[in-house]
C-alpha cells in the first residue's frame, strides 16, 4: 500500500492551482525557458487537463507563446469534470476505488474499461473511473466508452456532464462514432429521454454525420408520442433529409400525424398523394392516421373519401386498422362504413373481439338498424361469446324507439335473459310513451322472476307522476315498500314534481318537508319546480330558505328558477339579498339568465350603488352573457355621470358591439356627457356604426360630435360626421364652423362659459356671412 502511494506521488503529481499558475507566470515573464517548462509539463502529464483549464481561463493571451505538443481538452468538458473530481476527493482513498484503479492500471484497454463501468452500479463511481482513465498516459477513450457513460448520465438526468462528454466525443471523432450515436439515440428514445436523444442528434447533424433511418424514426416517433411542437419535429426531419437520409413510410406517417395535429389537413393529404414519388407505398397506418384525425375534427365526409381511396388502392389492412377505425366510424355515426369494414374483417378471417361486436350492435341500434344488429348478435353467440347486459340493453332500446315493445319482450324471453338492466330499459320505454298497462304487466313479470330493483319501481312511479296520476303512483309506492324497497330521493322528487305541476303547492311542500327530515336532496327538475311554484305565489322567504337548503346539499337549479327567485327578491326591495343569492349560486356552479342580471343591476342603480354594479358586469361579460337593449340603455344612462362616465363609455361600446342601438335621447346623453369630459374619442367608433341609423342623428348631435372630436384632436373622425351632415343638407353651426376654418380660439370659447348648444339654431345666412367676411 505504501509503495503504491509512493509511486502515485511520483507518477501522478497533483499540483495545486497556485503552483501551476506560478509556472505559467514564469513562462510568460521569461524567467524560465520553454524547454525547462516542457520538462516540468511532461512530469505532470496526468494533470494536463487542469493545466489547460488554468492556461485558458487565467492567461488566455499566453497560449500562443509556446508550441504545446500534447492534446488540450476543451474547457467546457474539463472544468466541470475537475470540479467533480475535487468535490469527490474523499472517495479516492476507498479500497474499492483503489482496487479498481489497480486492476486497470497495467492493462487499461477500452474493452476492460467497459466491463468495469458496466459492473459499477453507482454513477458517481463510474464517472470517477472514467475521468481517471481520461488522465492516463497513452490511453484514449473509444466511442464505446464515451457512449456508455453518456447514456448513464443522460438516463440519470445529469444533463450538464452528459452534454460536455458528448461534445468531447464528437470533436474527437473516434472510430465507430456514427454507430454509437445511433445507439445513443435509440437507447434514449426507448427510455423516453427525447431531450437527450435530440441533443445527440444535433451534435451528429453539426458534423453532417449520416445516422441510421431507424434512429431518426425513433426520435420522430418520440416527439409525436410526447406531443412536442411542430417546429421541433421539423428540425429533425429537415436535418435528416439534408444529409441524405431518405424517409420511409414510417417517417412520412409520423409527418402526416403531426400535420393533422396542427390542423394542416391539406398538407397531410398532399403528403399522402406524394408518397409514390418518394418511393413509398401508403400502408394501413397511413390511412388510419388520416381517418382518425379527420373524424375527430368533424371532417367525417372527407374521412369517408379517404376510406374509399384506400379500398380502391387495394391496400392490405392489418388487424390493428380494423380495431381502431371501426369504432371511429361508429362514434361518427357512419354505420355503412363501419359495417363494410366489419364484414371485411370477418371475411379475412381475423379474430373479432367482444368489444367490437358490442360497438357494432350499439351503432346499428342507435340508427334503428335492428335487423342488422340482431344478425350480428346471432353471429356473436355463434362464435361462443356470451352477450353482456349492455348489448341486451342496446337492442331493447332500439326496439323501444321503434315502438316494438312486444318484439323487445320476445327477444328477452327467447334469449332467456335473467338480468335486471334489459328489463328496466323496456320498462322505462313503456313509461316514456304512456303505455302503463304494459308497464304494469312488465314489472309484475319482473317481480315474479326476482328481477326488480329500486330503479324499476321509480321508473313506474315517475311515469304515473308525469301523467299527473299521483294516486296510482302512491299505490306503486305502497307495493314497493311491501316488496322491501324503501322510497328514496328519486321517489320523493317524482311526487313533488307531480304536485307542483298540478298546482298543489301545499302537498308538494309537505312531501318536501318529509324528504328534508330524512336529509335528502332533490334533483334539479324538482328543486326548480318547487322554487318556481313558491315564487309564483310570492312566498319569497320560503323559496329563499329552500334555495339555501338545496344548494347546501349540492342540489342544482335551472337558470330560469334562479332568475325567477332573484327577480322576485328584487321586486320586494331586497336587492342586497338578491346579490347574496347570486353569489351563492355562482359558487355552486349555478348561473342565472341575463334578465336576472339586469334585475339586480337596475335594483343597484335605484339604490345609487353604481360602483357595486361593476364587479357584477365584469362577471356577466366573462361568462358570455349578453344584456338586452332596454337593460343596456338603463345602465349606460345611469353611468352617464361625471364620476362614472368612463365606465359608461365602455358599456356603450359593448352595447353597440352586441348589436343594440340607442334611441335619440340616449344618444344625446352619451354624446353630450362624453364631450363634456373630453372622452368623445372613446366612443367615436361606436358612433360611426350608428351614423346610418334612421332618425338617430340630427344637426344638433352632429355639431356636438364634430366640435368635440376636433377639440380632442380627432379631425379625421370628425370629417366623417361632417360628410354625413353635408349629405343630409345640414350645415355646421357658427362655433363648429369657426373651429373647422380655424378662427375660433378653443381656450377663449371654453372660458366664456357659453354652451355650445346656444348656436344650434343659427341660420344658414349667418354662417355664409361669416364665411364671406
From TrEMBL:
<dbReference type="InterPro" id="IPR002885">
    <property type="entry name" value="PPR_rpt"/>
</dbReference>
<dbReference type="InterPro" id="IPR011990">
    <property type="entry name" value="TPR-like_helical_dom_sf"/>
</dbReference>
<dbReference type="Pfam" id="PF01535">
    <property type="entry name" value="PPR"/>
</dbReference>
<feature type="repeat" description="PPR">
    <location>
        <begin position="283"/>
        <end position="317"/>
    </location>
</feature>
<feature type="repeat" description="PPR">
    <location>
        <begin position="453"/>
        <end position="487"/>
    </location>
</feature>
<feature type="repeat" description="PPR">
    <location>
        <begin position="628"/>
        <end position="662"/>
    </location>
</feature>
<protein>
    <submittedName>
        <fullName>Pentatricopeptide repeat-containing protein At1g12775, mitochondrial-like isoform X1</fullName>
    </submittedName>
</protein>
<feature type="repeat" description="PPR">
    <location>
        <begin position="388"/>
        <end position="422"/>
    </location>
</feature>
<keyword id="KW-0809">Transit peptide</keyword>
<dbReference type="InterPro" id="IPR050667">
    <property type="entry name" value="PPR-containing_protein"/>
</dbReference>
<feature type="repeat" description="PPR">
    <location>
        <begin position="248"/>
        <end position="282"/>
    </location>
</feature>
<feature type="repeat" description="PPR">
    <location>
        <begin position="318"/>
        <end position="352"/>
    </location>
</feature>
<feature type="repeat" description="PPR">
    <location>
        <begin position="212"/>
        <end position="247"/>
    </location>
</feature>
<feature type="repeat" description="PPR">
    <location>
        <begin position="523"/>
        <end position="557"/>
    </location>
</feature>
<feature type="repeat" description="PPR">
    <location>
        <begin position="698"/>
        <end position="732"/>
    </location>
</feature>
<keyword id="KW-0677">Repeat</keyword>
<comment type="similarity">
    <text>Belongs to the PPR family. P subfamily.</text>
</comment>
<feature type="repeat" description="PPR">
    <location>
        <begin position="488"/>
        <end position="522"/>
    </location>
</feature>
<dbReference type="Pfam" id="PF13041">
    <property type="entry name" value="PPR_2"/>
</dbReference>
<dbReference type="InterPro" id="IPR006594">
    <property type="entry name" value="LisH"/>
</dbReference>
Amino acid at each position: 500500500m505504501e509503495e503504491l502511494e509512493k509511486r502515485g506521488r511520483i507518477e501522478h503529481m497533483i499540483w495545486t492551482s497556485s503552483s501551476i499558475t506560478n509556472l505559467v507566470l514564469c513562462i510568460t515573464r521569461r524567467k524560465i525557458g520553454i524547454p525547462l517548462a516542457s520538462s516540468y509539463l511532461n512530469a505532470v502529464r496526468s494533470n494536463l487537463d487542469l493545466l489547460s483549464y488554468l492556461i485558458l481561463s487565467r492567461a488566455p493571451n499566453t497560449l500562443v507563446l509556446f508550441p504545446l505538443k500534447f492534446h488540450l481538452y476543451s474547457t467546457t468538458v474539463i472544468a466541470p469534470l475537475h470540479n467533480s473530481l475535487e468535490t469527490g476527493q474523499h472517495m479516492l482513498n476507498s479500497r474499492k476505488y483503489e482496487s479498481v484503479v489497480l486492476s486497470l492500471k497495467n492493462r487499461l484497454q477500452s474493452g476492460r474499461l467497459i466491463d468495469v463501468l458496466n459492473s459499477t452500479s453507482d454513477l458517481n463511481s463510474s464517472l470517477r473511473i472514467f475521468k481517471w482513465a481520461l488522465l492516463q498516459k497513452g490511453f484514449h477513450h473509444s466511442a464505446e466508452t464515451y457512449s456508455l457513460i453518456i447514456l448513464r448520465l443522460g438516463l440519470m438526468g445529469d444533463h450538464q456532464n452528459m452534454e460536455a462528454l458528448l461534445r468531447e466525443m464528437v470533436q474527437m471523432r473516434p472510430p465507430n462514432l456514427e454507430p454509437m450515436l445511433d445507439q445513443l439515440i435509440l437507447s434514449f428514445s426507448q427510455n423516453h429521454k427525447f431531450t437527450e436523444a435530440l441533443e445527440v442528434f444535433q451534435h451528429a447533424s453539426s458534423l453532417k454525420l449520416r445516422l441510421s433511418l431507424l434512429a431518426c424514426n425513433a426520435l420522430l416517433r418520440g416527439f409525436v408520442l410526447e406531443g412536442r411542437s411542430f417546429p421541433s419535429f421539423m428540425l429533425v426531419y429537415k436535418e435528416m433529409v439534408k444529409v441524405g437520409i431518405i424517409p420511409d413510410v414510417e417517417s412520412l406517417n409520423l409527418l402526416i400525424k403531426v400535420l393533422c395535429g396542427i390542423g394542416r389537413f391539406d398538407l397531410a393529404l398532399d403528403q399522402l398523394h406524394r408518397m409514390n414519388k418518394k418511393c413509398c407505398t401508403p400502408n394501413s397506418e397511413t390511412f388510419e392516421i388520416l381517418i382518425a384525425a379527420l373524424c375527430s375534427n368533424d371532417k367525417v365526409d372527407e374521412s369517408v373519401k379517404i376510406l374509399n381511396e384506400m379500398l380502391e388502392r387495394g391496400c392490405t389492412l392489418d388487424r390493428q386498422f380494423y380495431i381502431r377505425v371501426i369504432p371511429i366510424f361508429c362514434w361518427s355515426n357512419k354505420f355503412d362504413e363501419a359495417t363494410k369494414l366489419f364484414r371485411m374483417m370477418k371475411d379475412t378471417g381475423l379474430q373479432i373481439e367482444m368489444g367490437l361486436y358490442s360497438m357494432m350492435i350499439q351503432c346499428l341500434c342507435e340508427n334503428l338498424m335492428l335487423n342488422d344488429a340482431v344478425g350480428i348478435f346471432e353471429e356473436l353467440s355463434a362464435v361462443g361469446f356470451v352477450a353482456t347486459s349492455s348489448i341486451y340493453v342496446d337492442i331493447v332500446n332500439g326496439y323501444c324507439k321503434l315502438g316494438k315493445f312486444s318484439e323487445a319482450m320476445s327477444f328477452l324471453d327467447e334469449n332467456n335473459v335473467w338480468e335486471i338492466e334489459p328489463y328496466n330499459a323496456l320498462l322505462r320505454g313503456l313509461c316514456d310513451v304512456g303505455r302503463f298497462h304494459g308497464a304494469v304487466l312488465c314489472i309484475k313479470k319482473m317481480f315474479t322472476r326476482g328481477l326488480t330493483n329500486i330503479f324499476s319501481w321509480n321508473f313506474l312511479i315517475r311515469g304515473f307522476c308525469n301523467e299527473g296520476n299521483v294516486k296510482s303512483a302512491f299505490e306503486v309506492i305502497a307495493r314497493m315498500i311491501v316488496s322491501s324497497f324503501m322510497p328514496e330521493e328519486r321517489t320523493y322528487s317524482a311526487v313533488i314534481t307531480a304536485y307542483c305541476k298540478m298546482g298543489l303547492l301545499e302537498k308538494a311542500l309537505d312531501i318536501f318537508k318529509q324528504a328534508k327530515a330524512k336529509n335528502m336532496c332533490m334533483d334539479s327538475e324538482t328543486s326548480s319546480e318547487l322554487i318556481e311554484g313558491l315564487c309564483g305565489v310570492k312566498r319569497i322567504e320560503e323559496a329563499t330558505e329552500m334555495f339555501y337548503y338545496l344548494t347546501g346539499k349540492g342540489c342544482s337549479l335551472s337558470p330560469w328558477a334562479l332568475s325567477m327567485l332573484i327577480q322576485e327578491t328584487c321586486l320586494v326591495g331586497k336587492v342586497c339579498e338578491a346579490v347574496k343569492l347570486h353569489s351563492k349560486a355562482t359558487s355552486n356552479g349555478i348561473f342565472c339568465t341575463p334578465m336576472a342580471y339586469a334585475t339586480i343591476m337596475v335594483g343597484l342603480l335605484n339604490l345609487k350603488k353604481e360602483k357595486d354594479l361593476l364587479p357584477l358586469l365584469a362577471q356577466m361579460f366573462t361568462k358570455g352573457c349578453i344584456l338586452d337593449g332596454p337593460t343596456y340603455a338603463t345602465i349606460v344612462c345611469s353611468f352617464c355621470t361625471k364620476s362614472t362616465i368612463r365606465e359608461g363609455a365602455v358599456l356603450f361600446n359593448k352595447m353597440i358591439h352586441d348589436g343594440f342601438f340607442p334611441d335619440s335621447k340616449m344618444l344625446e346623453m352619451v354624446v353630450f356627457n362624453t364631450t363634456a369630459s373630453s372622452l368623445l374619442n372613446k366612443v367615436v367608433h361606436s358612433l360611426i356604426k350608428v351614423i346610418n341609423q334612421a332618425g338617430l342623428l340630427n344637426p344638433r348631435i352632429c355639431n356636438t360630435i364634430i366640435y368635440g372630436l376636433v377639440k380632442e384632436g380627432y379631425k379625421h373622425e370628425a370629417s366623417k360626421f361632417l360628410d354625413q351632415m353635408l349629405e343630409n343638407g345640414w350645415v355646421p353651426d357658427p362655433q363648429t364652423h369657426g373651429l373647422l376654418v380655424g378662427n375660433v380660439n378653443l381656450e377663449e370659447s371654453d372660458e366664456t362659459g357659453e354652451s355650445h348648444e346656444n348656436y344650434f339654431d343659427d341660420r344658414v345666412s349667418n354662417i355664409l356671412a361669416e364665411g364671406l367676411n
